[in-house]
């Protein structure tokens, strides 16, 4: 329920900016995936009473995600995106595991399917979490003295 309200808020904020945002993305750095999805959702919501199917299909037609729909993983992206938009699960998208796994597998098989700017957020998180191995030494008082056998 709160997610539907969030979509309305996104729509209200994005609607006046949609033409300038779309034209500005060609000349500037690539927008984040989250901002592209928010723009596509706002593009798809014309009437609050329209069905999820209609909203999802209109959002998929947004020019802001046209580059994500084309290419080797376009079909997988479209299926995952539409499933996410139509999701009615309490935690949105949890009922879309299979389409997202298919998209992830496609991206692994085709690393150049999407621009690095779009995929960068996940890579940054991985870089921020280096795995370090720690060797923990117990305090001297907790170590039992070794006895010598003669």
Task: Supply the CATH class.
Answer: Mainly Alpha
Major β-sheet annotation:
none
Q: Helical content, roughly?
A: 55-70%
- How many β-strand runs? 0
Number of helices: 8
Described by the principal axes of the CA atoms, the overall outline is elongated
Termini separation (Å)?
77 Å
**Might you state the CATH topology name?**
Helix Hairpins
Radius of gyration: 23 Å
Domain count: 1
Report the CATH architecture: Orthogonal Bundle
Structural class by secondary-structure content: mainly alpha
Low-confidence runs of at least 5 consecutive residues: 1-28
Mean of residue pLDDT values: 72
Order of helices and strands: HHHHHHHH
Q: Assess the beta-strand content as a share of residues.
A: under 5%
Descriptive account of the structure:
The chain has 150 residues and is mainly α. It has a single domain, classed as Orthogonal Bundle (Helix Hairpins). It has helices spanning 2-14, 18-24, 33-44, 52-60, 66-69, 74-86, 97-109, 116-128. The chain starts with a helix and ends in a 22-residue tail after the last helix. 19% of the residues are buried.
């Amino acid at each position: 329920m709160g997610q539907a309200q969030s979509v309305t808020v996104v729509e209200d904020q994005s609607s006046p900016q949609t033409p300038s945002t779309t034209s500005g993305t060609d000349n500037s750095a690539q927008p984040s995936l989250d901002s592209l999805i928010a723009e596509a959702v706002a593009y798809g919501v014309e009437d609050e009473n329209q069905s999820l199917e209609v909203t999802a299909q209109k959002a998929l037609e947004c020019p802001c995600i046209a580059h994500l729909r084309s290419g080797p993983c376009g079909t997988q992206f479209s299926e995952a995106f539409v499933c996410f938009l139509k999701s009615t699960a309490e935690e949105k998208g949890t009922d879309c595991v299979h389409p997202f796994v298919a998209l992830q597998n496609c991206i692994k098989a085709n690393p150049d399917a999407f621009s690095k700017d779009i995929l960068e957020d996940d890579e940054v998180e991985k870089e921020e979490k280096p795995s370090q191995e720690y060797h923990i030494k117990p305090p001297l008082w907790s170590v039992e003295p070794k006895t010598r056998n003669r």
